[in-house]
Amino acid sequence: MPKPNWIPVSPSSTGFEAMRIRFDFDPISLSGLTSLHVSRATARPLRDKPVRLLEILRAGKSSYYDYLPSRFGHTKCLDDAVQCVAARVRQWLDKPAGPNRLTLELYSKAVRSLQAALEDPLLCRHPDVLCAAEIMVIFELLDTGRDAWSIPHIKGVGTLIEFRGPQGYQTEFEKSLFLAQWAPLYTEAIHNNTQCLLEQPAWQATLQSIIVEKSASLPYANGWATLWACMGAMPDLFRSIQFAVFDPNEESNGVQAILLAGAYQLRSRMMDVGMENGLTSTEMHGTETYSFILPDDAEGTQRYEILGALAINLMKVERYIVALDPSSAVLMEAHAQQLAMQILDLEHAATKSYPQAMLILASKSCAARGVLLTASDWRYETLSQDPKSMIAKPVFERWVSLGPPERVADEWRKKYGEKQYLFEYDSEV
User: Fold this and answer.
1) Which of 38, 137, 145 is nearest to 91 (CA)?
2) How far apart are CA 44 and CA 61, in angstroms?
3) What's CA 366's distance to the chain center, in Å?
4) Is 392 left (phi over 0), alpha (psi -120 to 50) or beta?
5) With a threshold of 0.90, does the pTM exceed it?
6) What does the DSSP assignment read for 108-141?
7) CB distance 34 to 355 below 8 Å
8) Partners of 428 in the beta sheet?
9) Minimal CA–CA distance to 46: which of 96, 87, 84, 83?
10) Cα(349)–Cα(373) distance, rounded to whole angstroms?
11) Using CA atoms, how far apart are residues 357 and 303, in angstroms rounded to an integer?
12) Which helix (H) or strand (E) holds 282?
C-alpha cells in the first residue's frame, strides 16, 4: 500500500484565522513551550508567576506550531487540541486560575477525538495525530488544577513517536514534531530509570541526521550533535551501574571495572564538549573548579538549554563514578556538587531575562537538588568506605529514588520550605 499523502491539499487559513479571532490568541506563540519536559517542576514557575507565560509567548521560537495554519481544518483531533489549548491560554491571560467550564468542555472534546483517531488503524499514523497529542501535553502543563503526578499524554506521545518508527520523520513537519520530543523522551527515561528508544542505533541516526540537516537554523547544532553522541549511551550505562550496586555478586569486580572505565571515558568526552560550549575549568589551591560562561545574546535561551543539558549529564556521570569507586569522591563528588550549584545558578540567572530557559532548566534543577539533598550522606559514606567497595546500597538507593522531579520537589520543600536556592541556606549544606 502506498504511503498516504499527509500534506493538506489546501491550507485552511480561513478556519485558523477564525479560531484566532474567536480566542483572541495566536497558538503559534506557544512554540516556546514545545521542547519542555513537562512535570510539576516545569508547571510550578508558571503557577507561581503566571505573567511568565506572557513573557514566553513574546519570546518566539521555531517549532511545529509554525505549521498549524496549514494543518488546521483537515484533522478533527488536531483542530480540537488547538482550540482547547487556545481557550486555556486566553483564560490564563485574563485570569490564570484553573480551567473554566468552556475550557474543560473543549479539553474533553479534544480527548475524545484524539482517542478516536488513535483507534483508527490508518489515521493513528498521521502526523496530525502526533501533533495533537503533543499539544495536549501543553494544555496539561497549563492546567493548574491537575494532580501534579498526572500528565496523561506524556507517555502517549512517547508511544506515538516510537509507533511511527525511525523512518517516520521525513517531512519538515514530522521532523519538527520529533525534535520537540527527543529531549523530553530522554529526560523521562533517565528520571524513571527506563529504557529510552533513543538508545537504539536507528533512532540515534534519525536524531543526528535531523540535527545536522538543521544546523544552519538550529542554534548550537554542532554542540547538540556532539553532546547527543555522549548522551545516547547514558541510560544504558546508568541502569548497568544501578544493577551492579544493587545486586553485587562474585563477578562484580570485573563488571565494576568495565563500567568504571566506560564512565570515565564518557566523562572525558563530555568535558571536551563542555570546553567547546561555555564550560571552564580552573585550578585553585590544587582543586579543580567548574564554571560556565553565561549567555547574554539573542540566542541566550538556546545557550542556557545546552549548558543545562551538559551540566546535568556531567553531574550524573560523576556521581555514578563515585558510586562505583568511592575513593574517587575527593574529586568527583566535589565536582558533582559544584555542577549542582552551577545548575541552580543557571536557573536563577535565567529568571531575569530568559523565562523560557528557566522552564527548560526546571527539571534539571530538580536533579541538581537531588544531589545536594544527599550530599552529606555521600560525603560521610565515601569517607568511611573501604576504597575497594562500591557505595552502600541504602545511600545509593536514596539518591536514585529521587529521580522523578516531583519527589525531589517534595523532599526539598520538607527541608528548605518554599525557598528554591541553596545559597540561601549555606550554613546547612
Assistant:
1) 145
2) 22
3) 11
4) beta
5) no
6) HHHHHHHHHHHTSTTGGGSHHHHHHHHHHHHHHH
7) no
8) none
9) 96
10) 21
11) 9
12) strand 279-284
